[in-house]
Amino acid sequence: MLRKASGTLGKWIARRAIWMIAAMLVLTVVMGYGLSQMEIRTSVNMLLSDEDPVAVNNARFQEKFGGESLILLVQGQQSQLFDSQSLKTLHDLQTKLSEVDKVYSVTSPMSLAEVFAGQARQQSEQMEQQIAEAMEEAATQAAAKVKESGGDEAAQAEAVEMAKSQVLQGVQEQHGEQMAQMEAIGELSATNDKFVRFALLDENGQPQSTVAQLLPDDGNNMLFQIQLDSGLTMQDMASATDEIEQIIADHAIAETKTLFSGIPAISKTLEDYIEEDILTMLLTVIVLMIVVLALVFPVRSRLISLPVILVGMIWTFGLMGYIGMPLSIATMALLPILIGLGTDFALQFHNRYEEEAVKTGDVLKATTNTLRHMGPAVGIAVLIMAVGFLTLLLSDMPMIKDFGLMLAIGVGIMYVMGLALLLPVLVVRDRKGIRSKQRASGGIVERSLAALAKSVVRKPLLFLIPPVLIAGIGFGLDHKLNVESNIENLMPQNAPALLAMNEIREVLGSTLTIDWMIESDDVRNPEVLQWIHRFQQDSVEKYAEIEGASSIVNVLTALQSDILDADRQTAEGVYSQVPAAMTSPFVSADHRMARVTFTLSDIDTKAQEKLLAELEANLDAPDGVEVHPVGIQVLQVKSLNGLTDSRHTSLISGLLAILIGLFVVYRNLKRAFFPILPIVLVNGWSIAILYVLGIDINPLTAVLGALILGIGTEFTILLMERYLEEKANGLATEQAITTAMTKVGRAISASGLTVVGGFSALIFTNFEVVRVFGVSTVLDTLLCLISTLTVLPAIIVLLDKEKAMTRTTQS
Q1: In what helix (H) or strand (E) does residue 526 lie, and over which residues does it extend?
Q2: Contacts of 425 (CB under 8 A, 6+ apart)
Q3: Does the pLDDT of residue 318 top 90, yes or no?
Q4: What is the pLDDT of residue 806?
């Protein structure tokens, strides 16, 4: 039934080839518009679903404390940075940064200097008012007293002047030194170098404890912490980053150096690299495909598959634009992978068409026979491949879900391209007659495959036992593979934003932090403050990995050491005296949420995961207080478990899904197992290779299992189909497998090499993680090819003792 329907479709295509081509080109223009709608997304939320509780809590946290943060470090000598002209420039920089539309807050020495200047002006005004009031009261009392004693106006005036003088003398005795100091300082502003030194530095020129973090390296650096608004899109963050970079460039200070970085800046850099790499990989894969097709595909118009597949890529990526699926470090890998797989499918159709054209000399018969034989065979392989890829939807990582979905859709599109575009193009080419010649047979490839087939038939256990043992060793090593989800390790290590961040760390020390979101009716409650203090103190003392902790407790205890023992009214009174610029980073405006930040030593993601789990297990928060870890680092750590678990889940699910699909096709459980057993072994070999080469499990290498299943089963299904065809023709098992390997082995080998050629383009990228993924997929594809030509025949020879049977695809 299926073959008959495919043959009918072949006739329809052959008779309407020109209309088919025209329709496909019109649809390509429509799909091409979707390319303009694509966006690049590289933020850490590509590692964790927005619906995940950790992501939900992080979103609520950012609503109160702002979104992603950027870091600006101005480096120079303290004398240079605190120069009057430099301070004016830095103050203007602070102002301009704060005025950027998408900036939530900017905290820097200049912002605190402005706060202190405001406080000083307020205190000065209050003192002047108090002095004036005291003088007025003293004058009134003195005049009244003299008047009561009968003194005249002159005596009263003299008494008034004396009273005022006494008030001034008292003020001078009590505050004279402070007043002289402030008079020597001059203007109370953040642009007056004398005041800024007084406010931010101690008598020895060292930063005051309250601002030490913003003046690292003894004040030879100034740190600007720029917090963006929450809920920004990647385009918004990129726009804000561009504007901030321009402001920084416009406020350069001679003989100083500026370092600018942060997640938004790093993400923007990644976007630039992705755009560059997409073009590089496209050009590379085109060149590689030309070379591979020229070497392994000796037919007429051997390169015609390439433009057909490029049309398929327009459809695939255009569809991504229409449905709003972003480009990420995962989905960018679709380009060479789908070009390789698409060329593989097209090669199968093209190769069979040329064979049928030589055999029949008739375009209609060639097209009909090609679709009758290859339509179902390749269709089954593509369907099973897509089923394997769709199991990646079980992953918790958005970028892996996107990758799996578009792989499944993409291979379907490539299959359609072979049917609806390649074959019509070949038909139009041959309208005036077929000039194909019979290709020489019995070449070195066929002879080698025939010899291999005979060896497998004679000694199948020799080709089965060693691969099984190696695979077993590989699976045993799986738990020893390291898992890496740190976004910085997944990007080009020479990226300017990352290099800047590393330089910033040399000055600041570790920038690795874990934030905690503390929620209560009022976090200023002494009971809550006491718990925060215990949480910080116990954690720092217990875990060597925690280098320090900061919260509102640090700010309050710096002002009043016994604040934790005070009652609620006193605590709130002290809190009200603290400038908002010092409390807002730690307590929300409604006082219902607080922030505690732990600074960690430079530990890997595994150690972070373990530490976080222990901290969560021992929170022991008071009743009515909720505590949740939040922040970029927590999102990365939490995604680590999902990365490992989803890798195994997708592999097992893929195996089951493919097994069910093959059983439906072959209606024979044993024969349904045959195509997947060799690929299961390849997964074991792949794990062994990852272990030997020291390759970590990351968001890309995590999909290798599903990718191997999809690609490998195509090879095994094509060989299995030809074997069953030969067996249905009356050949015994050994003869059928030898004939199948000889006749279809060359085509499978050529297909495998085209896939390898496509995947090789992944190696030519700026992303180390993508490059490693490329090497792994190339090796795994070769292993799939080897396993198909050795392990599958051995399994068939040993286990398939059934007589010929009629297959669904033959009916």
Answers
A1: helix 526-542
A2: 17, 21, 304, 308
A3: yes
A4: 44
